[in-house]
């Protein structure tokens, strides 16, 4: 599964100069919206992007989602966060993604 995720990310990352420059929340929101409008490329790109960010956050222990959370749910969470915080959309897309999903699925601290 990890190999498929990496392969998808590699293919999508190398396909478009416009999408490779996904840097801000504005870029992220635009591509989420384009994907939901039926742009298959944007949809696949966002899926790969969110998979990379969320897998990294899980690996370092900064994200603890329950079983069954899928990329559609992560996409909805990030989109909702970006729409509720328009003043932050000029910030780094990775940081905004981490904030959105981290607030939704925080890891419980060991007691």
Can you walk me through this structure?
- This protein has helices spanning 2-13, 17-20, 25-36, 40-59, 71-84, 93-104.
- It has 111 residues and is mainly alpha-helical.
- It has six helices and no strands.
- α3 packs across α4.
- It has a single domain, classed as 10k-s Protein, Hypothetical Protein A, Chain A (Orthogonal Bundle).
Key terms for this structure?
111 residues; mainly alpha
Range of strand content: under 5%
- CATH architecture, by name, is Orthogonal Bundle
Order of helices and strands: HHHHHH
* Uncertain stretches: 1-9, 11-20
What is the number of domains? 1
What can be said about the biggest beta sheet? none
Q: For this entry, what is the oligomeric state of its chains? A: single chain
Number of helical segments with 4 or more residues: 6
- The overall strand count is 0
Principal-axis shape equals globular
Mean pLDDT: 85
CATH C-level class: Mainly Alpha
Indicate the radius of gyration in whole angstroms. 14 Å
Structural class: mainly alpha
Distance between the termini: 33 Å
CATH topology: 10k-s Protein, Hypothetical Protein A, Chain A
Helix content: 55-70%
Pfam family, one: Rap1a
Keywords: Signal
InterPro entries: Rap1a
Organism: Salmonella enterica (Salmonella choleraesuis)
